[in-house]
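ok trying this again, last paste got cut off
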Amino acid sequence: MTLVERRVPRTPRTKLAEQVSRRIEDDIIERDWPVGEVLGAAAHLADRYGVSQAVLREAISILEYKQVAVMRRGRGGGLVVQAPAAAVVAESVAAFFHFADVSADELYDARTTLEVLSARLAAHRLDEDDIVALREIASNLPPGRPLSVAIARASGNPVVAIFVPTLTRVTGALAGDAGEDPRLGEPVASERHRALRAIAEAVISGDEATAERRVRSHLESERSWLTRIRQARSDADVSGLASPDTLGEQLAHTTEGKLPEKVALLVRQEIHRRGWPTGEVIGNEATLLADLGVSRAVLREAVRILEHNGVARMRQGPGGGLVVQAPDHARVVDALALYLRYLRVRATELFEVRTAVELRATELAAARAPRFTPEERAELSAVLKRVRSPSASAHTHVDLHVTLAALSGNRLLGLFAAVLARLTPFRIPDDEDVRLHSREVDERIAEAVLSGDASLARHRMTRHMEGLAPWLDDDAY
């Protein structure tokens, strides 16, 4: 089917502009993401996708926010392909888990899994420039430049380099404005600085074991801190002692990010504080402008961010306003997958992270097996039945891995596992003996999980992933 033959299906579930933006994304991927190429003028694109100019303009706004493409005016202008922004992807994931209200245990289990991997990889791969950057950040701790993100970049793995900042944003969303709270006191701040400097030096020295131990210890301290912060905020809300600041006053106290991004985060935090009342109108444009004290242009850009992240949507007409929504898990998976496809991440890089994520998720799933609900057991049984089928495909085995990760009870690890399992390319021989062996291995892993034997489940998953490694297809992207 050619681009001209394509037409966007008009379904009530998805806003038409979003459907158009996704179709354009698909076309960009098919064209090998040609950054700088002009896809066409507005009139040409409206005709190509069979929509009005108004719908196309909204679709382009979505693409511009995601930094997938931008409309260039004037002679030779049109919709120009761009490199997507990692920060936009990270914010989309953070919004979803802010809505899901992930626990501190979920967040820090995921952070520990990825940051330990990051530190171990960086200890082997960092170069002289990385050493200078790590020491500068560890010494000064500049706002907006977490050491964990710098180590992730030094890891040499682009998947780690997007997942770690994503979890940093989730942490910030859950902590609210407490990330640099001076009320923590000098002793706590000094201890945190010492811990971060010690992590940096362990990574620089190439001492993996020490780096891992220090990362785990630091994150355990952070977990306790976040738990206290959230409990204190909950107690204040219950007792009526929550901050009386208006949204505008709260906005004035925030320091990081562009103004529309700060407005979007503040509105999201306010929605979270209200218990995420899906379907409620939290204010019309005039009310929000007055409360926030920003221009109409800034508010509309913030609303576009909220809409893209599935947090809220501006409804027009009588009784309209900013309506609270529930962010969609599938959209978050799509956003992460889209960005990783743009990066052309190699199969070995995907698999490096996938292995760490799935090993931890499998271990957690086995640990909570005695608490599986009847529905969870039925879901795992259904996937196993498909795995045992003689006609089972590679996708069926992927389904089992994704299901086991979901059964871990950690929604962050479950989401990352779903993205990585979906993207990792293999060249598995079309051989009956290979299929039979793979089926047996999958069954044995599931058996260990269902028996609640976490050590055995991790052992079997480790051997399984080692067996898959030789079939990775690094030429797929």
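PB: full thing came through this time. Residues 1-14, 178-185, 239-244 have pLDDT under 50 and may be disordered.
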